[in-house]
């Protein structure tokens, strides 16, 4: 068992704020909080400020240039890329950091401006802007609104019938016009989330080499060992608040995709910015996927995956370099690492860095939220239930642990007692005490006294669970016999088929409703369309981590939290559950619609930040009076800026 506080491996609950409290008298309240998700500076009342954190100023730029070349050009201060009211584009308010390396100054105008995705507005450039920035003749004479551009892009995207084509169209747009991309995503999140993230991103990762056009994020491989600090400095933005990193070994339910797993951090980047930035990073240590190693289009290292000390040293160098460049409060989100590395990294760095594993902690938090919400449909409390999992990896054990923590919180019972209501099945069958010696450490807390059982359906009949949760990554494992057994035991069986992508889902929504005679409370990891059964339309919910991680990340950043605590995950779950309305319940939903995700993320961020302040883990002082409004003020706005 991994235990950072000798009770839970989810996060370092043992961390307290004593160190923070001791320094409070020495800390000065910040003038503003620069949140990468907002890409603009706000004071604590939500007002934009002209001061920028991490921007490339003239003095520092010239110093860097002097250090790197003996013939540094003289830079006009008015042309310095500062991002404030005197930046090169003369924007009316502060905007995002310019993508320039520390030793260069880049001034875009005319044709170059139209190729700059961070400032390009296409046909939305006004007449005065076209004159001021040398755009005359480079654009057709028509001036259109951003809203009309959104309408046109959605029309174009809907012409594609293949999801991967829609994904590529969205990525093309992101590389041409960043603000239009995010406005499109924000305003059409329910339709486009499955395009830019699961399930389509899984196929995009599988074919990443063949569809690769332009690099997004940082690729750090074994070739860069000993030089990672230098590599990180190549990334042009300095005010990084969130890093999403993967080694590509366990991409969704698709296995080892090596360097091509970059699609996952890039997808998270889109959601962090639109819903709640970050720097996407792939650690390339090779791949054991023979198909990729023999693929002419594969873009990663062509070698077997490094393990042991070589792997550990590379990850440690990366973690140390990140902290050195970006500081203690940068959030590092581990994504799609294999089980053995995922738990080890969370345990090793949970007490020294602000780290979060979305597969373990994010999945757990969103599933717990659905279970809390489901109690209004079935009655009682979590402690009244018995849980059976198919799958005992990162997701399964992470969810199980957070459920046990919530039950312990609700009842006051020891964690060891609440775990006894939770059973797990892995590839060898039911996890029982007689198997304990051969189990991986993260499975051992779930080895209860029981006779060995090999088949899932037999485990259902013996354990008699009220909740069945699938995290196996193996499709169609919730068979008709299994679902019928759940329906025979429970009036309203709770069935969560969480594996991604859709092809790996344990069962479909249609199967769950049909085999349970319409009585199942169902949610899945991948989206399913509404199902008509028995004259009633059922709307399946999606237990998507995108409900949790943008708000959680924003809450950590806006409070200046130095560690992730279990109580923050519980707060996020409880907040999400509270957003489910009676109208949602009437449709059988246990999650709110994604159309409200920005409002949901703001409330999650506020409650996570409140918990950070309560635990003494927050460093942004003083605490804002209205955390919800403060969270909203920190969120990214995709509206075009007016250039003077």
From TrEMBL:
<feature type="domain" description="Malic enzyme N-terminal">
    <location>
        <begin position="174"/>
        <end position="350"/>
    </location>
</feature>
<dbReference type="Pfam" id="PF03949">
    <property type="entry name" value="Malic_M"/>
</dbReference>
<protein>
    <recommendedName>
        <fullName>Malic enzyme</fullName>
    </recommendedName>
</protein>
<feature type="binding site">
    <location>
        <position position="250"/>
    </location>
    <ligand>
        <name>(S)-malate</name>
    </ligand>
</feature>
<keyword id="KW-0479">Metal-binding</keyword>
<feature type="region of interest" description="Disordered">
    <location>
        <begin position="37"/>
        <end position="82"/>
    </location>
</feature>
<keyword id="KW-0560">Oxidoreductase</keyword>
<dbReference type="GO" id="GO:0004473">
    <property type="term" value="F:malate dehydrogenase (decarboxylating) (NADP+) activity"/>
</dbReference>
<feature type="binding site">
    <location>
        <position position="500"/>
    </location>
    <ligand>
        <name>(S)-malate</name>
    </ligand>
</feature>
<dbReference type="InterPro" id="IPR046346">
    <property type="entry name" value="Aminoacid_DH-like_N_sf"/>
</dbReference>
<comment type="similarity">
    <text>Belongs to the malic enzymes family.</text>
</comment>
<dbReference type="InterPro" id="IPR001891">
    <property type="entry name" value="Malic_OxRdtase"/>
</dbReference>
<feature type="active site" description="Proton donor">
    <location>
        <position position="197"/>
    </location>
</feature>
<feature type="binding site">
    <location>
        <position position="359"/>
    </location>
    <ligand>
        <name>a divalent metal cation</name>
    </ligand>
</feature>
<feature type="domain" description="Malic enzyme NAD-binding">
    <location>
        <begin position="360"/>
        <end position="613"/>
    </location>
</feature>
<feature type="binding site">
    <location>
        <position position="335"/>
    </location>
    <ligand>
        <name>a divalent metal cation</name>
    </ligand>
</feature>
<keyword id="KW-0521">NADP</keyword>
<dbReference type="InterPro" id="IPR012301">
    <property type="entry name" value="Malic_N_dom"/>
</dbReference>
<dbReference type="InterPro" id="IPR015884">
    <property type="entry name" value="Malic_enzyme_CS"/>
</dbReference>
<dbReference type="InterPro" id="IPR036291">
    <property type="entry name" value="NAD(P)-bd_dom_sf"/>
</dbReference>
<dbReference type="InterPro" id="IPR012302">
    <property type="entry name" value="Malic_NAD-bd"/>
</dbReference>
<dbReference type="GO" id="GO:0006108">
    <property type="term" value="P:malate metabolic process"/>
</dbReference>
<dbReference type="GO" id="GO:0046872">
    <property type="term" value="F:metal ion binding"/>
</dbReference>
<feature type="binding site">
    <location>
        <position position="544"/>
    </location>
    <ligand>
        <name>(S)-malate</name>
    </ligand>
</feature>
<dbReference type="InterPro" id="IPR037062">
    <property type="entry name" value="Malic_N_dom_sf"/>
</dbReference>
<dbReference type="Pfam" id="PF00390">
    <property type="entry name" value="malic"/>
</dbReference>
<dbReference type="GO" id="GO:0051287">
    <property type="term" value="F:NAD binding"/>
</dbReference>
<feature type="binding site">
    <location>
        <position position="336"/>
    </location>
    <ligand>
        <name>a divalent metal cation</name>
    </ligand>
</feature>
<feature type="active site" description="Proton acceptor">
    <location>
        <position position="268"/>
    </location>
</feature>
